[in-house]
Task: structure prediction
Amino acid sequence: MKTNFRIVGLSEAQFEPLFSLDDDELAQKGARRLVVDAKPGFPCRVSLQDAEIGERAIFVRETAKQIELAPDEIPEVVAGRVMSVRAYNDKGMMVNAAVTPGKELKSQVEKFLGDAKISYLHLHNAGAGCYSCRVERV
Result:
């Protein structure tokens, strides 16, 4: 059975107050701003795109705009990486996981979301282990 899904980035509103902070103020919040020096290499968690060389980022691009992807659409920032797919139940407990090349992600997502006990998925960049985005049923 095919399960439709949507990949969801983080809300830009929660990061907007950070963009006006200087480096010391960011450090007090446990964050730091980087200048992008490679593409790919700086995936934005809001726009779900790789930042452009020369942009400033805190792993959210200062120019990021919230994106709404079409059902079953996988953005290049995910498709171009190896992803750790973590499956959670309605109590927020991880109940399954897999490491999958981004180009094969759709079948893994459909497999996990085809299991009624799984409520949502988190995608993490497998190499660095950092959070990328969320996957929900539609």
